[in-house]
Amino acid sequence: MAEEIEKNIKDMLNGYNKKLSSFSQDGIDSALSYLNHCRNEIWEKERNDINENFSIRLEDLSGETKDIFKLMEQLKKDIKQLYVNNNGVLTHITTVAPEDMEDGRIKKSIGRLNNYETEKGDWTFASSEAIDGRNAYMARQKGMILIAENVYIYGGDIISVQSDEDGSKHAVLKRPNYIYEINPKKFVPVVTLKSDRNGTTGFEFSEEWISDEDIDIDDPEQVSGVKEVTDVTDLLSNYHVFTDTKRYEDGERLIGNIIRSYKAKEDREELLVEFLQSDDLKYINGECGINVDDRFLIKHQMNISDETAREFASEPDVQLEKEGAKEIIDYFARDNTREESSNVRC
CA torsion angle for 11, 13, 15, 19 (degrees, to 10)? Predict the structure, then answer.
């Protein structure tokens, strides 16, 4: 059933993108500009520690721009109806076991961004992504930030590396996660408009869902089952996984949040190099020896100062021994910001 729903979603998106192509390029560009405006508004408030929710307002739009966003709203409704009609199941992943769930309800998260950072609100989150090595939420406990394509920073020192009897290493959550299987009726899918590297613009569905209601885990009409997960090794084959080992416990802003609040690539480059040279980040792939990228091992291979790291971001001609750090900068300097990625995160 899941494969059939996935195919129908793909067909649905193709159909809606054909409808989108009937709009003028000016109208499409205006819609994209409005989404960037939303992100900039949110980022600016985050940089200034202003905790305010933010919603897309159709009443602020007009003409083709408004019609495009109305089309997006209809796409959300059709995606939801497809899941409801086919008994699709969403999942909510948390560290809270059923017996410890306050009032027997999955409560809304306060002041959280959607996956595309175009809105911020008080929501209960769920996902329609399969529970496998592609679902980065399997390891999320204290925040999860997508920094570049397939590169995640998780908040907290949440993962330990353990060896089995054969000597194979595994990434294991120090505290288990619980997967709640949820009916999609109370949820709305998160959809956006984006352009790919070829300049083609289309609608995208992130597999993320949001609800403005709490979920009753004792109601079989809302929650159909619960599973426990601790081994998240499969994630390493698909993603580069870092843990922000100190800042969460110290009550500081997470590294991922700090980097995300800067729009300019140059600022992100400088910050990433600085953090990669510190002990604040742990590279889980490197410790397990799975899907290792040498660029992310550079902090273990080189002992350089933050001042020198900054030079890498501004000096195009660097000595050969500095090329490793320069590769890190080049990797993150690509246009791999979240709004151009199809992965889920929150």
Answer: 180
Q: What is the pLDDT of residues 186-239, one digit of tens each?
A: 999 999 999 988 889 999 998 999 999 999 999 999 999 999 999 999 999 999
Pairing status of strand 201-211 against strand 188-195: antiparallel
DSSP for 28-97, written as a single string:
HHHHHHHHHHHHHHHHHHHHTT----B---GGG--HHHHHHHHHHHHHHHHHHHHHHHTT--EEEEES--
Give 200's DSSP letter. Answer: -
Structure confidence at residue 130 (pLDDT): 84
pLDDT of 320 reads: 31
- Answer with the residue of higher pLDDT: 254 or 85: 85
The Cα 97–Cα 102 span in angstroms is 10
Tokens of 189: 């899918």
* Pairing, β 105-106 against β 281-283: unpaired
Residue 316 has pLDDT above 70, yes or no: no
User: What pLDDT, in 10s, does the model give residues 159-201?
Assistant: 999 999 999 999 999 999 999 999 999 999 999 999 988 889 9
Q: Which residue has the higher pLDDT, 305 or 62?
A: 62
Of 258, 214, 202, residue with least CA distance to 46: 258
Report yes or no on 345 lying in a domain.
Answer: no
Q: Is 1 exposed, middle or buried (0-12, 13-18, 19+ CB in 10 A)?
A: exposed
Domain contains 346: no
**With contact defined as beta carbons under 8 Å apart, do 25 and 200 qualify?**
no
**DSSP for 212-261?**
SS-EETT-TTTEEEEEEEEE-GGGGGT-EEEEETTTTTTTPPPHHHHHHT
Number of neighbouring beta carbons within 10 Å of residue 252: 13
Residue 25 counted as domain residue? yes
What is the span of the domain harbouring residue 151? 2-340
pLDDT at 326 over 90: no
Residue 240 sits at the vertex; the CA angle it makes with 148 and 145, to the nearest 5 degrees, is 50
> Strand 151-155 relative to strand 240-244: parallel, antiparallel, unpaired?
parallel
Asked if the structure places residue 33 within a domain, the reply is yes
User: What is the tally of structural domains in the chain?
Assistant: 1
Tokens 């996902």 locate to: 127
